[in-house]
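Example record for the data management plan.
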Amino acid sequence: MNQTIELLMNHRSIRKFKQENLTDEQIKTIIQAGQAASTSSYYQAYTVIGITDEKLKQQLREVSGQEYVEHNGHLFVFCADLNRMYQSQDETTQEKMKDNIENTEFFMMATIDATLAAQNAAVASESLGLGICYLGSLRNDINRVNELLNLPQYVIPLFGMAVGVPDEEPDVKPRFDFNAIYHENSYQDHTKYVEQFNETTEHYYEDRSFNTKVDNWSKQVERKLSKPMRMDVTDFVKQKGFNKR
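Corresponding structural encoding:
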């Protein structure tokens, strides 16, 4: 196993950071590593917003409900961005473009572009000895985040990423068996792998070094998805010009 694979396999989310801000050089390196990711048709349809204003961090923490949104080395917000492409054209071309940029394909494309860049940024951060945590919780009130960040039409906030010097060393969470994830030629039944994984996660939660509990993967899914959540996201996305057609 080489160092790159070892780094990837050792990933864990960090939720407690030392009070050390990232340097400008670290921030630039992380973003440029993100920019090196693959991008559909060279569109580069994403924007990353770095949050340095302490009041704004507090407001985003209120949306998230998570302390580490405020207390970290640096907070990044990754956005799907079709505005840059749209604004690069004259009004006649913009009108012609709308059938494309307002359809589901381009919504997916911009989201994928941003996610690929984010994962590159995450790996780059960890290679620098930093820790990261993705923050889907910023979508708890996506309209509020949109307002706080002053995002124009055709730009939506997808998720945040807290980065910093780790002040904890959590256990690496187990993942599904290889055969549950990788199927050859067609989709395969995964029932036995889910059962196996429930046993694995039960042992993990019972034996981990902190916050032990009785739980498993299927129970988590049941708790999280049995009641509606973030039901405002669909309308918000369409209001911003995405996924309308």
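Summary line stored alongside the record: Strands lie at 46-51, 74-81, 131-135, 155-164.
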